[in-house]
Amino acid sequence: MKKEIHPEYQEAVIKCACGSELRTRSTAKEMHVNTCAHCHPFFTGKAKYIDTEGRVERFQKRYAKFMNK
């Protein structure tokens, strides 16, 4: 490895908008994120599922004439 061309690897803090902090190592000293594993709806179990019922049936009905050929 060449000396003096690599960025300094140091302790870093990742701060979330919810107030959660994660300590790690990085070339950046501090990072800010909007969501993390503590506040993201998928990980907290509060995810809202979009109602997709009927989409497959609508697709099959629309393209049935192409599938029959």
TrEMBL record:
GO terms for cellular component: ribonucleoprotein complex; ribosome. Zn(2+) binds at C16, C18, C36, C39. Its cofactor is Zn(2+). Part of the 50S ribosomal subunit. The keyword Acetylation does not apply. Binds 1 zinc ion per subunit. Coiled coil: none annotated. InterPro entries: Ribosomal_bL28/bL31-like_sf (IPR034704), Ribosomal_bL31 (IPR002150), Ribosomal_bL31_A (IPR027491), Ribosomal_bL31_sf (IPR042105). Keywords: Metal-binding, Ribonucleoprotein, Ribosomal protein, RNA-binding, rRNA-binding, Zinc. This is Large ribosomal subunit protein bL31. Binds the 23S rRNA. GO terms for biological process: translation. Belongs to the bacterial ribosomal protein bL31 family. Type A subfamily. The keyword Transmembrane helix does not apply. The lineage of its organism: Bacteria, Pseudomonadati, Kiritimatiellota, Kiritimatiellia, Kiritimatiellales. GO terms for molecular function: metal ion binding; rRNA binding; structural constituent of ribosome. NCBIfam families: L31 (TIGR00105), PRK00019.1 (NF000612). PANTHER family: 50S RIBOSOMAL PROTEIN L31, CHLOROPLASTIC, LARGE RIBOSOMAL SUBUNIT PROTEIN BL31C.
